[in-house]
Amino acid sequence: MPVDSRPHVLMMSEITVDGKLTLKRGASSKILMKYMAHETEILLHRTRAEYDAIMVGANTIKIDNSYLTVRLVDGKNPLRVIPNSRADIPLEANVLHGDAPTVIAVCEDAPPGRIAALRERGVEIVAAGTGQVDLPRLMQILKEDYGVERLMIEGGPTLNWSMLNHRLVDEIRLIHLPFIVGGADTPSLVGGMHIETEEEMIRLALKRYYMCGSNLVTEYDVLYGDDAE
Q1: Are the C-beta atoms of 22 and 148 separated by less than 8 Å?
Q2: Within the chain, how many helices (H) and strands (E) appear?
Q3: Based on the structure, what is the number of domains in the chain?
Q4: What are 81's strand-pairing partners?
């Protein structure tokens, strides 16, 4: 979709040396995040404060029960956006506590009872797509109806892949943790690819790298189409 019809999107994540997001499948990413340098935690929260909205997938909410708020620096909490096709995130989830504006994106045939229960928690519901959330449509809604110009993703492998596959990510910022955890089924930065040829690879251009406390941080532009030539 045209870049001017959607927010500018930054994907930000911590990863181990072998590219993993968690200790093992089903484990919270918070287990590894506690090993980030304090300076890097501040970088994460400062980035949140600089963006209009922050998005994670429903599975991340179910496993990590994140708050997605700004806590370590002064700044405004971004709009929290959760794609959740069936409106089935736990009703006790921290993102439903009302401490920041929150949008739950559902598909058009999500159960009405679940939608009503979420609305009772004070969040806004938007329908985008049938069967599952249409991410390009959601990006358009966020820009047109909520004024979101800059969106950051702290997603898991499924959301990260879906956003990249739809060519909706402009930048990637990685916080490198000096660990190797292994595991053939341990979640990595991006899942669901199963590419067959090198032409299908998503190409990046390294634009900056630096130490933040004891962590290496790398920043990339994502290249699509002619930009990747």
Answers
A1: no
A2: 6, 9
A3: 1
A4: 55, 103
**Residue 215, token pair as written in the block:** 């962590």
* Element at 137 (helix H, strand E): helix 135-146
- Structure confidence by residue, pLDDT tens digits, 119-150: 999 999 999 999 999 999 999 999 999 999 99
Q: What are phi and psi of 69, to 5 degrees?
A: -120, 170
Q: What is the pTM of this model?
A: 0.94
β-bridge partners, 171: 10, 221
Q: Provide the CATH number for the domain around residue 167.
A: 3.40.430.10
Query: Across the chain, which distance is largest between two alpha carbons, in Å?
Result: 50
Q: Which amino acid is at 197?
A: T
Q: CA 137 to CA 1: how far, in whole Å?
A: 9
pLDDT band of residue 46 (cuts 50, 70, 90) is very high
- Enumerate residues 6+ apart whose C-beta is below 8 A from 24: 181, 183, 186
pLDDT at 226: 67
Helix (H, G, I), strand (E, B) or coil at 136: helix
Q: Which domain holds residue 213?
A: 3-228
Q: Are strands 150-153 and 124-127 parallel, antiparallel or unpaired?
A: unpaired
In whole angstroms, what is the distance from residue 49 CA to residue 74 CA? 8
